[in-house]
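Aim 2, interim progress: modelling of the magnesium ion-bound target.
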Amino acid sequence: MDNVIRRRTVGARIGRAMLYAVLLLAALFYLLPLAVMLITSVKPLAEISPGTLLSLPREPTLAPWAKAWGEACTGMRCEGVGGYFFNSIAIVAPAVAISTVIGALNGYALTKWRFRGSELLFALMLFGCFIPFQVVLLPMAQTLGWLGLSSSRAGLILVHVVFGIAFTTLFFRNFFVAVPTELVSAAKLDGAGFFRIFWRILLPVSTPIIVVSVIWQFTQIWNDFLFGVAFSAHDTQPVTVALNNLVNTSTGVREYNVDMAAAMIAALPTLLVYVLAGKYFVRGLTAGSVKG
Amino acid sequence: MAALEINNVCKIFGSEQVLRDVSLAIDSGEFLILVGPSGCGKSTLMNAIAGLEPVTSGEIRIAGEEVTWQTPAERDIAMVFQSYALYPSMTVRQNISFGLEMRKVPRAEREAAVERVADLLQISHLLDRKPSQLSGGQRQRVAMGRALAREPKIYLFDEPLSNLDAKLRVDMRTEIKKLHQRLGTTIVYVTHDQIEAMTLADCIAVMRDGRILQLGTPDEVYNDPVDIFVAGFMGSPSMNFIVAILEGGAGDYRLRIATPEEEDLVLPWPAVRETPDMAGQVGREVILGLRPEHIGEEDARLGDRNEGTRITARISVVEPTGADILLQLPLGQGEVTARVGPRCRVLAGERLALRVDMGRAVLFDSETERRLA
Ligand SMILES: Nc1ncnc2c1ncn2[C@@H]1O[C@H](COP(=O)(O)OP(=O)(O)OP(=O)(O)O)[C@@H](O)[C@H]1O
Ligand SMILES: [Mg+2]
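Predicted structure of the complex, ligand included:
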């Protein structure tokens, strides 16, 4: 909304119209790759040729999607990306849940039960947000080996949880810091303990930041490729790795429509999560910065 | 037996000493008010009593039992926070009964308790609302209700009325007074409001820089302050401090006050209020403390039978407050405030005859600022 009060002159209107035009163009530009993917994924192979990237399919077909899901070859096997899609879900769901819960508890303890060195601890955790993933690949592989979790789904979940905690802790700490400490004091006087206060007083007001944490973690872990490729075996690979294998498997003709359909399948969940909960995401990120 | 006893409590935050050797004791059923300038450590002391902040040294006893290292829950204290601190996700009913629920009080009893305090505070119609749907005054009453639902050993109120408008504040003040008379529970109460302090307290503790300067009844603190700070802090408008020279000797002390462009004023000090300390100050500067109400107008019909010592002064400012009129007049090095009746007809710039009630005046040492007489 325009918060500036001024008279609407003709010039101002033209200026506004141009502004919208530019924004619209920019939006279209960013949507173009998605459109190309969608269009290509429902074209029969015969219709795909250079120069017709943007033309609509004459005979739309869902066959590439079906093939990508159930038949396309990813390396040696030809079972599509469907199975790997469920692999991803089996990794993402627990990893998101665990890292969010731990982040919430960390944020709660760091703000409402301060102890000597809690600020330092938080600063060190923040550091975790900035560590490039590549740096830890080898030590992490070693650790997983010691734990007997190499190439297992549990191992991959552990890696994602460990990396996610830095971010989820940051989110929850910044959210809880704005929640008045008197609430916790009042609950202590009322006789509630650490977990009771968390569960009954703080959690019910944390919906926005839970949404932020879940979306963020979901997107990060679902889109992860590096850890997936480094720490998984064939049957525990996430969909991103399978997608890469699918695209890189060269047997005869390049089936762009199948590639695109597989890419769409791999990208849909994050899109969906953002569309469904994006509103809360933006709201949660700015929560606490403004009163009310 | 003392309901609350604080012995030599110190609290240090980092390098800052916030409470310095605080000691006090109050009896069961007493209403103690803590006053003092912002940042003097009142809330810190409350938090120490509640067990929300550990003390650095010293000892706290509740009903005879040492509680210094007990958790807030074990101490059995209810507190009303300055910010109310109502649980935002709970209804008023849940807010009030939460403390009982945590203490495993059976449901029927909890409901009875909610009914009881809701009636008492007239919030029965609000029980199913969330705190965000309440006005400030209603929230305040809910905060009070949450404390009253339980029957703790001590209630702590940290500036509970500071967010209310003037009218509601006066009403709530009366309510709290009635409540205390009815329940007879021990209360510690922080306020910045002079009138709240004077009307509610059985006992007032005046604090400054983490120390208790004086602990006494409202009458003692008001009429018999230990030093200039306490004298100036209590009362509104505050006490006038006038630099004077002490003259004469035992049985005939006088105070000479030099006012620019006026003749020196000599006020006799009442013999009954002499103290041995005064002897050492003869010929030196002392500070005379006079409350505005101790400088009043002369009643023309009474003439010489008026009480107090006569002075005349050129009035510089006239401030009617409704109930009475405050006058500013030059006396000593600065201006002083006098309080006269609402019918006194005087204009700024006119001279007026006033009477000073030296029987209630106090005298301070000008260096140590301690009370002389
Ligand atoms: N957690 C803390 N860490 C460091 N210093 C603190 C902390 N809490 C309070 N202080 C300091 O202790 C002093 C006393 O604070 P306190 O809140 O007790 O003041 P107060 O008398 O309640 O003031 P007010 O009337 O403004 O509420 C202040 O100087 C404050 O800066
Ligand atoms: Mg305070």
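Chain A has a mean pLDDT of 88. Chain A has two domains: 2-64, 82-287.
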